[in-house]
Amino acid sequence: MQICDELKDLRVVLVHDWLTGMRGGEKVLEVFCRLFPKAPLYTLVHIKGSVSKTIEDRPIHTSFIDRLPLAHSHYRYYLPLFPLAAGMLKLPPCDLVLSSSHCVAKGVKVPTGAAHAAYVHTPMRYVWDMYDDYFGKDKGGLASKIMPFVRPHLQRWDVGSNDQVDFFWANSKHVAKRIKRHYARDSIVINPPVEAGRFTPQAGETDYYLVLSALVPYKRVDLAVAACSRSGRRLKVVGKGPDLERLKSLAGPTVEFLGWQPDEDLPGLYAGAKALLFPGEEDFGITPLESMASGVPVVAYGKGGALETVIPPEASDKSFATGVFFAEQNVDSLLGALDRLESQPELFEKEAMVKHAQAFDTEAFAQRIAEAVLKVCEIKFK
User: Fold this and answer.
1) Engineered SS bond to 279: which of 8, 93, 220, 229, CB 3.0-4.6 Å?
2) CA-to-CA distance for 56 and 77, rounded, in angstroms?
3) Where are the beta strands (DSSP E) in the chain?
4) Do residues 266 and 236 touch, judged by C-beta distance below 8 A?
């Protein structure tokens, strides 16, 4: 991955919310790091060794949150302090601040004369669209009692901090609509990267369904666990998170919890599955495309970013399908989708699914980001 000549002398500073594991946002950041290998990185919290060598191999500067008690294991408890922490990050003089934000990274103070392009994975979901999933009255706990008082402050800060952003990039059309709704700002859509070349279809029979997800309530992994438990279908759940014990209590004997698995084991897990279950409403969703790159269809909730990547059999403008949708977030609706998938396996051709996923490959994403940065420079520094 080579940066074009026009960008080699550009002084870039990278900002990311926190570095605690390799998920979709970190895959985006990894490409930023490859495009700008000399760029320093600023973040709220950094657990050393939790992200790829490409990210780790650069100067990483953290906020005061990183030095607070239990910050590495319970950093989310400090959410009310995140805006302050982001605002206190002291960025050096530069030409471009490139932030990767799903929380507060876009709210950094930009050095005088610098442009700021914010790649937004989602507006801060904790205080906007998914507030109830995290802090609703039925959730209990101290956070649910405190957040009604904190939420208005965080919302005001989130909107006000947009004055520091010159250009918004959204990871999907779904997120672009949220940016417009909450921030009254336009954005360009640049879908996140998928390492399609890592995944290879395999021949032969498959006997399990797969979930690969952080185990938090809004991901709705409970639907997959309950549906497979009720119907006696095998399910492998890859991931960890605070919802694990609750999910185990819902699981029957056909459900297996594997925890997080090493990156090198994921291609085999995908390729051996009947389908990936994707029951949450996501901003975009990289795992469905990894599944398709493995020649494996997807059963997805029919809202959010999945509508931009999963092609159902009824799509009139396509000659192939990559999965099926279920319309309601309940077990019966998901079971109906599983039945439809199993009744028409001939519609999901491995070769077509792989080709579809390759259009979202990492190199294509890097090229789109480089072009977007050039456009920023053309507009800001002309």
Assistant:
1) 220
2) 25
3) 12-16, 41-43, 60-62, 96-101, 115-120, 167-170, 188-189, 208-212, 235-238, 255-259, 273-278, 298-301, 323-326
4) no
Q: Degrees (nearest 5) of the Cα angle 157, 163, 165?
A: 110
The per-residue pLDDT for range 299-319, each reduced to its tens digit, is 999 999 999 999 999 886 778
Specify the DSSP element, H or E, that contains 177: helix 173-183
What is the spatial distance between Cα 10 and Cα 16, in angstroms, rounded to a whole number?
19
**What percent of the chain stands above pLDDT 70?**
97
Q: What's the sign of the alpha-carbon dihedral 216, 168, 42, 38?
A: positive
- Beta pairing class for 273-278 and 60-62: unpaired
d(CA 50, CA 134): 24
Distances 233 to 114, 211, 225, 255 between C-alpha atoms, Å: 54, 13, 10, 8
DSSP state of 338: H
User: What one-letter code names the amino acid at 106?
Assistant: K
CA distances from 349 to 38, 203, 274, 275, 354 (A): 43, 12, 13, 13, 9
Q: What is the pLDDT of residues 217-231, one digit of tens each?
A: 889 999 999 999 999
Other Cβ atoms less than 10 A from the Cβ of 91: the count is: 18
pLDDT-wise least confident of 36-40, 99-103, 240-244, 291-295? 240-244
